[in-house]
Design brief:
The chain contains 4 helices and 18 strands. It is mainly beta and 322 residues long. It has 2 domains: 171 residues, Immunoglobulin-like (Sandwich), CATH 2.60.40.10; 109 residues, Lipocalin (Beta Barrel), CATH 2.40.128. The N and C termini lie far apart (91 Å). The relative contact order is 0.12. This is DUF1735 domain-containing protein.
Length: 322
């Protein structure tokens, strides 16, 4: 009898051990309203920003898997919704559509994904689907144009899951663990920022004309040569090899522009800093046809010039650069 009890005890222990090593779903999912339910684990974030300079081809692209007691089979549908958020300095946040009473979220429906769109993949036992929202789709749904988009804007993509019992799961009733925890990885809200990548570094051919200076200019008030814009790590600014574009050299003075930076703020160019003589420079955009970037510059010493910088082969100046 002792042997039978001992064997039974060993069997129970082994079953507990085997069960503890099995991949299973914890039945309790911590929502503010429900103890059990469904969440959408984000398994891939292929694209989570819009390119300000290429909105026509920008997209939000993620893959999610529905995690529930039936491996995703309880999903009835998932609504994909959107609104735009903009921070206006000194004013606050502005939304399209405008926020509801008490600041309540007011967004618009982009599409409804049926539960049947969630399918089995070799990578998981949970059903998965891909969610793609193009920038043009988001703009159209909100009734705005690309011209009304600024760098730094944020498009809030919200997911609203309804299960086959009619229960709703979203970023409102999800707990902090579900939205921010590494295990759940189910924010239901994705902030898709409008970013302004800058790739202006390089060495370029240039011509400068219409030079003025009380200290002397180049013969014929013209100078041609090469200029280098060097990216400054972690910024969208560039160091300039010669902020005078040859004029100081014609005066017999070494180029003194080491402290001057040209800044790219979503395509809007400007100067900052000062040269070795304390000169502060102003950038004035003239034109950009992709091949020729034309601008004038000046400083407080009465020096100025008109510069045309040629783009390098295969790399035209960005269309929005100004």
């Amino acid at each position: 009898m002792k042997f039978i009890k001992y064997s039974l005890g060993m069997l129970v222990t082994m079953l507990v051990f085997i069960t503890s090593c099995t991949d299973f779903v914890e039945p309790r999912i911590p929502y503010s309203t429900f103890d059990t339910g469904t969440y959408l684990r984000t398994t891939a974030r292929t694209s989570t920003s819009f390119n300000f300079f290429d909105l026509a081809n920008s997209k939000f692209d993620i893959t999610v898997e529905a995690v529930d007691a039936e491996n995703g089979a309880t999903v009835d549908n998932v609504e994909v919704r959107v609104r735009r958020r903009r921070l206006i300095p000194g004013v606050g946040l502005q939304f399209v559509p405008a926020a509801g009473p008490g600041g309540a979220v007011n967004d618009v429906l982009l599409e409804t994904i049926p539960g049947s769109a969630f399918t089995q993949t070799p990578d998981s036992k949970f059903l998965r689907t891909q969610i793609v929202v193009t920038a043009p789709e988001a703009l159209s749904a909100l009734g705005i144009t690309a011209a009304q988009v600024n760098g730094g804007d944020v498009f809030e993509i919200r997911l609203k899951l309804t299960d086959k019992k009619g229960r709703v799961f979203n970023d409102v009733n999800a707990s902090a663990d579900i939205k921010g925890g590494l295990f759940y990885a189910s924010p239901f809200l994705y902030n898709v920022g409008v970013v302004c990548p800058s790739d202006l570094g390089g060495t370029y051919d240039f011509v400068q004309v219409d030079q003025t200076s009380p200290y002397g200019t180049c013969p014929g008030n013209t100078f041609s040569g090469k200029i280098t814009w060097t990216p400054i790590a972690g910024t969208t600014s560039y160091a300039i090899s010669d902020v005078s574009y040859g004029m100081l050299g014609c005066q017999g003075t070494p180029a003194a522009g080491a402290g001057v930076r040209i800044n790219d703020a979503c395509g809007l160019l400007s100067y900052s800093g000062a040269d070795g003589f304390g000169g502060v420079y102003t950038f004035n955009f003239v034109s950009n046809n992709g091949t020729d970037l034309v601008f004038t510059w000046s400083n407080q010493f009465g020096e100025s010039g008109r510069v045309t910088i040629k783009s390098n082969p295969g790399k035209p100046w960005p269309a929005g650069l100004r």
